Amino acid sequence: MAFDLDMIKKVYSNYGSKVDAARKVVGKPLTLTEKILYAHLWDGNASKAFKRGTDYVDFAPDRVAMQDATAQMALLQFMQAGRPQVAVPSTVHCDHLIQAEVGADKDLATANIQNKEVYDFLSSVSNKYGLGFWKPGAGIIHQVVLENYAFPGGMMIGTDSHTPNAGGLGMVAIGVGGADACDVMAGLAWELKFPKLIGIKLTGKLSGWTSAKDVILKVAGILTVKGGTGYIVEYFGEGARSLSATGKGTICNMGAEIGATTSIFGYDEKSEAYLRNTARADIADLANAVKEHLTGDDEVYNNPEQYFDQVIEINLSELEPHINGPFTPDLAWPISKFAAAVKENGWPAKLDVGLIGSCTNSSYEDISRAASLAQQAIDKNLIAKSEYTITPGSEQVRYTVDRDGFLDTFGKMGGVVLANACGPCIGQWARHGAEKQEKNSIITSFNRNFAKRADGNPNTHAFVASPEMVTALAIAGDLTFNPLTDTLTNEKGEQVKLDEPKGWELPAKGFAVEDAGYQAPAEDGSKVEVLVDPKSSRLQLLDPFKAWEGTDIKGLKLLIKAKGKCTTDHISMAGPWLKFRGHLDNISNNMLIGAINFFNDKADTVKNHLTGEYGPVPATQRAYKAAGIGSIVVGDENYGEGSSREHAAMEPRHLGVRAILVKSFARIHETNLKKQGMLALTFANPADYDKVQEDDLIDIIGLNEFAPGKSLQIVLNHANDTKDTFEVNHTYNEQQIEWFKAGGALNIIRKNMGA
Q1: Whole-structure pTM value
Q2: Mind telling me the catalytic residues?
């Protein structure tokens, strides 16, 4: 039986009436996205139509999911909220803290020792407050959610930017910061600006070397890393219905790389088949009873230009396999043009490592198609020229593909099976030799490829492709190899060509698992004690942030003027820093160490205006905090893209940064800043970024009249006694302004709960 069946029955019981009410107030046919959003309004049935991209709306998500790295801070905040139990079904998944080094068994054993304190905390806090707990080794959050919790027409928030993976089963699943998760677990509404909509019509059908991954690689090339910001992407058409549920999940998962709020497919026969094959026939039966509401109206898909803000059409029959990168996931190359790009750009053609798996591509279908190529290598006397690793998405997938012989096939090819965890995808990879920082190339079936993300080496050129393309190139050991057209020389000196990959959407013998790794919470958690050692270097109870002082903020030092791309990896690196995700003060020692200083083109080297000397960003900011001096961070376009990690907002708040002023924000990061009581501001005129000088003292004017839609002023007091004054914008509504005044949203929750 499925998890939370009673909750799902309740959601479906009045779905039709909620959709009908929405259609009435909107006055036209509805997209799937609109149906789900209007069916999850906090106030019940829709009484008004919301303006896309403008209106802030309160929603009632059905569930919350958290991975271990972000769950620590989310649950530390929840502990302050004063509730005895979570208000909605919630889960914790231990997938981020396992470092890939040797192989699955040894790496998991090491992680259980090194992270025992954190795992014990997460287990006990889940036990106490009624959360489901997925143990280390159970699998990657998004794959586990797709297998166990995602359901068509539902709404979920998750403390990871790739939460949209559940859109593959028709769920509006949105990545958020831990403070948002805390709100929902505490029984409060979740606020989101009503998104705009991009419709992507898929025609034709995939064949040969092309896979679902190539759809999103193509889309990333079209929309870029910020083209989806403020939008939900809805896929439809005959091509969409031909894709497997896990293939759809892959596309939705990597939609995070275009900045989309989430992505979604409608419920269809493929969705039903996946539900039934993952022991959720009861949910499939319930969904079938309301299936007319679990897809967009026919009129919408027949005339999409009238109902979406933007429409893109892709013919799957004509789509080429793609390889994206290096250094950004939106640099898209069809395979026919990739070899020339490698040569023209001087990228290392020798491929050092191929890595498949991750939350994006670790389904049975992915593994079976990659394994068919590994078997060809064995049969055709080819020895893989590159290192090759496999990261299963869940214990259920790992057990099943092992039973069906695929892991043995990879082993014969020279592959190494890593733990069911995030591993190299998030920098949890003890890659031997990376410290030499040599120029090299790797190719992965992951989702992100920012510089230094996988192995900490800024000279690693990381490319993203489908598992089958990664496997083929790992066999060749050469990025210029095109498996569709080229041959390879085998051990006998013969020229051989790889055949098209073959695979199965679902296992013929069904899924199987001995121990999925799930721990149910205590029925009565009131007597469960959550212990946090005050001397711990990994866990730290939180103190409330101070409220706004009630005046304009003047005399701020410029901490850093960040140049170019500044992702959450630049603001709060992962990798070895993950061990401090539950200790705000310790992890703050990585604040902005990856950002490039505009004034010297260096990372982690800024001017300390108290001494005149240059030093690390965190140490400089700690000096300002000790002296009681506030500071400001200035940034470029799409500041805070990438991971949902709220540490990137909490660290500057903790160390005394008062405001972040940028050309534009990524959605999740802007919300995280607001939740923590920070000022998130944008240049009204992006050219004013150029006016900010290294020695400026900066004032923020107009805070006593802080109001929605009303600009604030920035005054740059230059060292030569001149000034520049200009307007800056914000997107705060009345409630978010109260968060700022109170010193953070959690302070208001605590007050309202009487804690």
Answers
A1: 0.90
A2: 95-96, 160, 448, 643, 645
